[in-house]
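User: I'm writing a short report section on ligand binding and want a predicted complex to refer to. Could you take this sequence and protoporphyrin IX containing FE and write out the structure as tokens? A short remark afterwards would be nice.
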Amino acid sequence: MKPSMIKSLQSVIRRASSSLNSSRQHFIRPYSLESSPNCKFTVLGAGAGAGAAVGIGQTRALVMKLNPNHATGYSSHLSRLMCSSAVSSNAGLKMLVTAGPRAQKLVGIWIFGCSIWVFSMVVLGGITRLTRSGLSMTDWKFTGTLPPLSEDQWLIEFDKYKQSPEYKRVNKGMSLEDFKFIYWMEYAHRMWGRGLGIVFAIPFSYFIHKGYITLRLGLRLSAIFALGAGQGLIGWWMVKSGLEEPVSEYVQPRVSPYRLAAHLTSAFVIYCGLLWTGLSVVMPEPPGVTKAWIHGAAKVQRFALPLSLLVGITAVSGAFVAGNDAGRAFNTFPKMGDTWIPDDIFSMEPFIRNFFENTSTVQLDHRILATASLLSITGLWWASKKWDLHPAVRSIVSSTMGMAALQVTVGISTLLAYVPVSLGSAHQAGALTLLTLVILLNHTVRRPSSSMLKSLRSVATA
Ligand code: HEM
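Assistant: Sure. The structure tokens for the complex follow:
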């Protein structure tokens, strides 16, 4: 071996060992550059669990396990050291939790737990709307109230509901028992939201007290908490619009589609914010490992963001379908009634109102956006077959495509079956699952930190 080569190897080993020491402080396990053909790769689950699965234990779910039989002698040891140097060097790596692996794991579990709570909250909200329970409680207090506890209290609540336009026009003659059902649905939705506030705030204070939360993470979580508190206010603002007398006696009372869309969009933003933050806590560095995989991830990243925006806009357009009850019109597919495009799609004045209030236009938009989402995701999946990708990225792209196809299928079934509660809520949960996957995809194809890129470069030239 030439003296210059020995010198260069010595310098790599020195750098790698000092990085190994620092990796102990930064909880990143060593990967191997040789891992591609010899690794065991696991992705656990999709849906809300996907984030948690990828996240918990940082590299435990998206884990590259080195085959010990393959690791032979000095060269393998060296490559492992070089790799750990690449991954664990921390300059430029922004950790959100710096107090140790246990703290990182606890904070991760808490944030993913909250995002699963938000997921269930959205589904419960959907069921509340689909069972027409949302207008049963005619007042609101930020702190909440006890439910009626005696028959007299129930009668008082029922009397208040009897003054509402929904009772007068839709539910006239409803029995007390039926009223109790819709009341409990709405009550559960509201209390589940308040429960989330507690589940969020108490551990948050505890983790701050323990010094687990960095300033960056604290600010981010505080912003999400503020959005959560605002969500309650938006919810009541939405319900109030459904308690007002409709403009004409022939119109059924329902909440404003704009307010419903605002409420649902805000829930999506909170969910996505929590998920992204949880992933950033447990997976501060994307699974890059080799230069080819980093280039592959960059190619996916170019498409992942616009694609996610498209899925997000499709979901918001879905909220307008729900808000206008547009799922109960044109219950045919692919044609809308006898035509591909209904005649009245631009019948409202001013023109822009058609996109938010005209049943035909709102449903047509949702169909077009959903088709565009599915085609774009399929296009990315098709193109990415030729790219050199980390198995995690490949698996997430395929899962996203599968989920988009399932979501479109459930959407069409919901429409053909005149929006039953079961399919309507499955379609809503499907939208959140698809959003989970696109968030996961964007997070996994992020550009690695400058220190990781630098280390990879130096390994390649050594
Ligand atoms: C990428 C695909 C899709 C996404 C992300 C998506 C998303 C959504 C969302 C978020 C809602 C609101 C749910 C609620 O508040 O209850 C919704 C409603 C709806 N979507 Fe989709 N959707 C997709 C595809 C489709 C397709 C292809 C159809 C049928 C042609 C469809 C039909 C409906 C109907 C009928 C509703 C109203 C359900 C209700 O009243 O609760 N969706 N969609």
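A remark for your report: The two ends are 14 Å apart (CA to CA). DSSP finds 16 helices and no strands in the chain.
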